[in-house]
Design a protein that fits this description.
about 450 residues; Amino acid/polyamine transporter I
Length: about 450
């Protein structure tokens, strides 16, 4: 299988493609509104710990399993597990379900971003008034035909890139888009921090109130860490299968994690100063970014142009993440069912579009379709981020720690002894064998009110 598989062509290509998966709307859209809804700095501190102790070890393990097998997320476990334990492939199938659910609502949000690029240029959202910004966003998400059009446009464009393959599609696009993303985000931060009253937003982001830390906050932080780093859904495993054999996996994963964290902090510095400067509500929810970014640029020269560039930034971030998640079902169908890449992509896009209809219309036609008090958008988000991704992380840790074993882990992460990192590998093994899965399990039970 590995002889006929496409792959990344360089270490830089590996880094930017993996970073493109991690740095998505989770940083620019989800991180700010979840941080705002969960107490600001106190949540940020919990998120940092969740990333270091929980998410990073799982990320390294998942990438390692991908490179060791050179296969998709289901076949990888079938290849690496003993013959009597092929049931571990359920991890791959869980990742497939999580990927579809995430794409169902995530591509809808990406559609909002694409729509706001054109709204920025037209001047229709050029206002610092919270009521005007809220009304403009509400009008967009309440229009069924408009939101579906933008979602399907996102799916069509990313589907075309996926059809080009790993090196000519995913890697080539990531190399061009990631540097642009960082430059635009820094520009947005500079503008936001110069607004009157901006320091209140900085305090909100960096002055913690520990009384706001609850079990639900802990679960939300772990779920966000997994969501943002694309862990537990087969994405990092699939990308790891395209890594070349000389790639330093622990170093690459750590660089991706630090870069992802940097983007999250930059996004927070771009959003929260504007939130307080213009009197927005930090706990405004999913609409937060779409209300604050127009306000940041409304009062400056060429504001419409800079606003459009900012939403281009968000679109770039969304594209990289969607490509990585969409690659999970495409790789599975291509390898397990022997479908052509075009056919596998077309089926994947159609499936996501189908599940995306109820999620995308959750502010209009399907608003009353509730289960456990959640509309389709929130339900897909909750099931994937708070259940499937953490559970996938637990199972990956158990597989690596108790089935795959330390000798194989050392062989893979040291690149057959070329890297002198035995102490680091042993520490990682202890984490994934004992500490990380136990922490995730306890946090899950507490957050779901089962403990």
């Amino acid at each position: 299988m590995s002889q006929h598989r496409d792959g990344f062509t360089s270490s830089f290509g590996v880094l930017v493609a993996t970073l493109g998966s991690a740095v998505g709307l989770g940083n620019i859209w989800k991180f700010p509104y979840i941080t705002g809804s969960n107490g600001g700095a106190s949540f940020l501190l919990v998120y940092l710990l969740a990333t270091l102790i929980v998410a990073l070890p799982v990320m390294i393990a998942e990438i390692m399993l991908g490179r060791a097998s050179r296969a998709n997320a289901v076949t990888a476990f079938e290849m690496l597990a003993p013959k009597a334990q092929r049931f571990w492939s359920v991890i791959g199938y869980m990742g497939l379900v999580a990927a579809v659910l995430i794409l169902a609502f995530y591509t809808g949000v990406a559609g909002w971003v694409f729509a706001y690029i054109f709204k920025s240029l037209s001047g229709s959202i050029h206002s610092t008034d919270p009521a005007t910004a809220k009304a403009a966003f509400g009008a967009l998400v309440a229009d069924p035909m408009q939101v579906l059009f933008w979602q399907w446009l996102v799916l069509a464009s990313t589907g075309l890139i996926i059809m080009l393959g790993v090196s000519k599609g995913i890697e080539a696009v990531a190399k061009k888009l990631m540097p642009i993303l960082f430059l635009l985000l820094i520009l947005l931060c500079i503008r936001s921090l110069t607004l009157p009253g901006a320091m209140e937003g900085v305090k909100f982001l960096f002055a913690p109130d520990f009384s706001k830390i609850t079990a639900q906050v802990l679960l939300t932080a772990v779920g966000l860490a997994f969501f943002k780093l694309s862990i537990g859904m087969g994405t990092m495993l699939t990308y790891g299968s395209y890594f070349h054999s000389e790639q330093n996996i622990p170093l690459t994963a750590t660089r991706v994690m630090l870069a992802d964290l940097s983007v999250s902090l930059l996004a927070g510095l771009a959003i929260f100063p504007a939130v307080f400067a213009f009197g927005f509500e930090p706990a405004a929810g999913p609409s937060l970014v779409f209300m604050t970014i127009p306000a940041v640029f409304a009062s400056m020269p060429f504001g419409n142009l800079f606003m459009a560039l900012c939403f281009v930034l968000a679109a770039i971030a969304a594209t990289g993440a969607i490509l990585s998640i969409l690659e999970v079902p495409v790789a599975m169908m291509s390898e397990r069912l022997q479908f052509s890449r075009k056919k596998a992509t077309a089926i994947s896009v159609a499936t996501v579009a189908l599940f995306g209809i109820p999620a995308t219309l959750s502010s209009s036609l399907t608003a009353d379709w509730t289960l456990f008090g959640l509309n389709p958008f929130d339900l897909f988000d909750y099931i994937s981020s708070n259940i499937l991704l953490p559970l996938g992380g637990i199972l990956i840790c158990l597989f690596v720690g108790w089935v795959y074993g330390l000798p194989q882990l050392q062989q893979q992460l040291s690149n057959d002894g070329q890297l002198k990192n035995a102490l680091l590998v042993k520490l990682l093994f202890i984490l994934v064998r004992y500490i990380t899965p136990l922490l995730i399990f306890i946090i899950m039970l507490k957050g779901l009110n089962l403990l």
